[in-house]
Design a protein that fits this description.
Helices cover 62% and strands 8% of the residues. It is mainly α and 154 residues long.
Length: 154
Amino acid sequence: MAEQNDSSAKAARMADFMCFAVYSTNLAYSRVYKPVLDQLGLTYTQYLTIIALWEEDGQTVKSLSDKLFLEPSTVTPMLKRLEAMGYLTRARDARDERNVRISLTEAGRALREKGLGFGKITVEASGLTPEEFPVLQKAIARLRDNLIKAAGSD
């Protein structure tokens, strides 16, 4: 729903919608990421997957899907592509064969070095100060978490 500053019956404009501001910001962010992602040969979602595995290697497909806010059925084809590219391996969990564990290869870990400095590029492109950037990031994460809670899915 659009935000209105007064109780008048003026028609809501697209610019008045928070959801459009978030959506269009995501598109703009993707434009900033594109040159670096092109250098790495990855899509944005593939890059986020690699980051999640840098943080915690050997996690299950379910755990990774939860972190990415995606369904396992969406993540699995992407993991197969990353495996074909030589960045990760998928293997059945020895303790519970229902789970598939994802691990980075040396090539996958090496991507970290190639992606260093990417954070600085995005902070600079944002026009925010180094102090403002994490404040906004936390506010957006809180907004996301509140929306997920309101939608009834954790």
